[in-house]
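A quick aside before the break. I want you to see a complete sequence-to-structure record at least once, exactly as it would be stored in a machine-readable document. Don't worry about memorizing anything.
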Amino acid sequence: MIEEKLESLGIKLPNPPTPAGSYVPAVKTSNLLFISGQIPMEDGKMIFTGKVSDDNLETAQKSARMCAINILAQIKKELGNLDKVSKIVRLSGFVNSVPEFSQQPKVINPASDLFFEIFGEKGKHSRIAVGVASLPLDAMTEIDAIIEFSG
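That is the input. The structure line, written in tokens, reads:
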């Protein structure tokens, strides 16, 4: 069912990115799945890099959406089926922004909106969106997630 929703939105899940450091992409415990921070990588290449400012807000929003798609790819890899998701519990969004930028929530909104659109009520989550001085590989955004699952 979720796969059909993705298809209707024109989203094809990529192979999930491999970690850029000494950690695992996901950890399951009880009925929670912790997804490590996902950056805007596609086919092993960083797509959105650099500092976020008022001048490139729309590009940064695309970066956040790509992070969300990579989170979905990691969930599918770990659970085998996105229909096992019973709740998107929390997203933590990090924005590689210039010091005077203060619209981090607007940058991360497209990621949240994608989860709302795909999962409906199950997609409603708590969230933080913060600006940071830098991110790994000069990524514009990084988002991690906590997911509740069943089965």
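Two observations worth writing down. The chain has a mean pLDDT of 96. The beta strands are 26-29, 32-38, 41-42, 45-46, 85-96, 126-132, 141-149. We'll return to this after the break.
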